[in-house]
Write a structure and sequence with these properties.
single chain; 254 residues; alpha/beta; Rossmann fold; 4-stranded antiparallel β-sheet; 10 strands; 37% helix; globular; binds adenosine-5'-triphosphate; binds magnesium ion; ABC_transporter-like_CS; transmembrane transporter activity
């Protein structure tokens, strides 16, 4: 992997994450070394339970690492305290959760602007309108999450992650609940926002077509990176995933 020569947005060095300890320990990340460059859109694929969400949560400082380092804009975030991490996440990192994590008592609009409300800031109205219209949420703004479909909740979560124009965006299956047309719209939008805002996006997806929108795709298996492709195509990613499944099946038979 040669990369695009851009400066590093975030880097994991020997990153280990264990859940629990002793016999019941789960080794979710087994010494991951990976560098994500600024202005690049990377997809992360791999089997369920392989550690994709764990990698994203740990990189974003939402979950602590067991060992290793995470360097974001030159600073090691594994050494930051909660206040420093909160500021970082509020202003510079956007996170689209696999399970949305919308606040049920608030409307779609209030949820979208929540990161700014918490920071005591006002949204850039033109950017808010752009997000709402691109994501097709205009008519749903006054509704609470339980009055929205899964796809609409997902789009609210996307708008919320992007409202503060973060330089680094983590998206955990952002199109998992969208139909193919909405999914293509969201992916094109993410791709253009990488180009226009020089944003760095790291996106988990189970969909090889979604991964083909990215500049780079990584395959994760059992807490490790097993493939790293530039300019991924859907066919290539499906072939890599199939090969990984066959390898895992053979390993189980032994
Ligand atoms: N809080 C936790 N406590 C214990 N084990 C956990 C916890 N969170 C995740 N795990 C385990 O860590 C491993 C990696 O989980 P992770 O959620 O990162 O997988 P994933 O690749 O995102 O899967 P999926 O595609 O299903 O979302 C799994 O074995 C999972 O059961
Ligand atoms: Mg996951």
């Amino acid at each position: 992997m040669e990369g695009n020569g851009n400066p590093t947005a975030i880097e994991a060095i020997d990153l280990v994450k264990d859940y629990g300890s002793g016999d019941t320990a789960v080794h979710a990340l087994r010494g991951v070394n990976v560098r994500f460059e600024k202005g690049r859109f990377t997809a992360i694929m791999g089997p369920s339970g392989s550690g994709k969400s764990t990698l994203m949560h740990t990189l974003a400082g939402l979950d602590s690492a067991t060992s290793g380092r995470i360097v974001f804009d030159g600073a090691d975030i594994t050494r930051m305290d909660d206040d420093q991490l909160t500021l970082l996440r509020r202003h510079r990192i956007g996170f689209i959760f696999q399970s949305f994590n919308l606040l049920p008592m608030f409307t779609a609009e209030q949820n979208i602007v929540m990161p700014l409300t918490l920071a005591g800031e006002k949204p850039d109205r033109a950017w808010f309108d752009m997000l709402v219209d691109t994501l097709g949420l205009r008519s749903r703004l006054d509704h609470r999450p339980n009055e929205l479909s899964g796809g609409q909740q997902q789009r609210v979560a996307i708008a919320r992650a992007l409202i503060s124009k973060p330089s680094l965006v983590f998206a955990d299956e952002p199109t998992g609940n969208l139909d193919s047309v909405s999914s293509a719209e969201v992916l094109s939008f993410l791709k253009s926002s990488v180009r226009e805002l020089n944003q760095t996006i790291i996106m988990v997806t189970h969909d090889a077509v979604a991964a083909s929108y990215a500049d780079r795709a990584i395959v994760f298996a059992d807490g490790r990176i097993v493939a790293d492709e530039d300019a991924p195509t859907a066919d290539r990613m499906n072939a890599l995933l199939m090969a990984e499944r066959e390898r895992a099946t053979r390993a189980m038979g032994r």
